[in-house]
């Protein structure tokens, strides 16, 4: 059941970020939202989190394009690519959500502007945790199967085989028991 939940979260959040990233990159989906995104990134570039440390402030258009490409690529990976790359894409999208939340908070936007990023950030965090639990369960199940297999081999070794009838030296204790019974 948890595996189905991880797949569902991967597909829905991945497609959401592909859509949002596409809106940030081009006005093809909705021109009005695209203009709002451009205005937001002009404000976001002023509060870029690493500007105080690196003394680097990216241009608003470059920042918008980078965030859009990160969201589209990671959304596609989260939706279509199997394997451990999904976890990397999940972390990338989670960092993108945290960046957006930070920027909205720093420019004093209301909570309704941050809501979608908060919700999808929580969904990504839940997906990450559930996937870790599924991986841990799979490892635990495979270890249990290996232990059971070893126990089955040990029990098989304890059962007298057909070799005792072919080679009498194989199971000497059985012959000794038979001879002791004859003597009694």
Can you put this structure into words, describing what you see?
The chain is mostly helical and 184 residues long. The protein has two domains: 2-140; 146-183, no CATH class. 82% of the residues lie in helices and 0% in strands. The protein contains eight helices and no strands. Helix 1 (2-25) packs antiparallel against helix 4. The N and C termini lie far apart (64 Å).
**Unreliable residue stretches:** none
Count of distinct structural domains: 2
Order of helices and strands: HHHHHHHH
DSSP strand tally = 0
- Quick one: overall form? elongated
For the terminal residues, how far apart are their CA atoms? 64 Å
Supply the number of helical segments: 8
Major sheet attributes: none
Mean pLDDT: 83
Query: Which band does the percent of strand residues land in?
Result: under 5%
CA radius of gyration: 31 Å
Helical amount: over 70%
Estimated structural class: mainly alpha
Describe the SSE topology:
Layout: H1 2-25, H2 31-46, H3 51-54, H4 60-80, H5 85-106, H6 111-158, H7 163-166, H8 172-183
Membrane topology: Multi-pass membrane protein
Protein name: Novel acetylcholine receptor chaperone
Subcellular location: Cytoplasmic vesicle; Endoplasmic reticulum membrane; Peroxisome membrane
């Amino acid at each position: 059941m948890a595996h189905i939940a991880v797949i569902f979260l991967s597909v829905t959040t991945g497609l959401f970020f592909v859509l949002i990233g596409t809106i940030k990159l081009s006005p093809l989906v909705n021109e009005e939202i695209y203009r709002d995104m451009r205005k937001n990134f002009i404000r976001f570039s002023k509060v870029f989190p690493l500007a105080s440390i690196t003394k680097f402030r990216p241009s608003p258009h470059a920042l918008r394009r980078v965030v859009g490409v990160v969201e589209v690529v990671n959304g596609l990976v989260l939706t279509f690519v199997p394997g451990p790359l999904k976890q990397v894409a999940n972390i990338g999208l989670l960092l993108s959500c945290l960046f957006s939340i930070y920027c909205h908070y720093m420019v004093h936007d209301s909570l309704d502007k941050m809501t979608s990023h908060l919700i999808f950030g929580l969904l990504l965090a839940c997906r990450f945790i559930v996937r870790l639990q599924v991986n841990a369960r799979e490892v635990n199940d495979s270890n249990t199967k290996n232990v059971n297999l070893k126990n089955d081999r040990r029990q098989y070794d304890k059962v007298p085989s057909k070799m005792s009838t072919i080679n009498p030296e194989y199971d000497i204790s059985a012959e000794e028991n038979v001879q002791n019974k004859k003597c009694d």
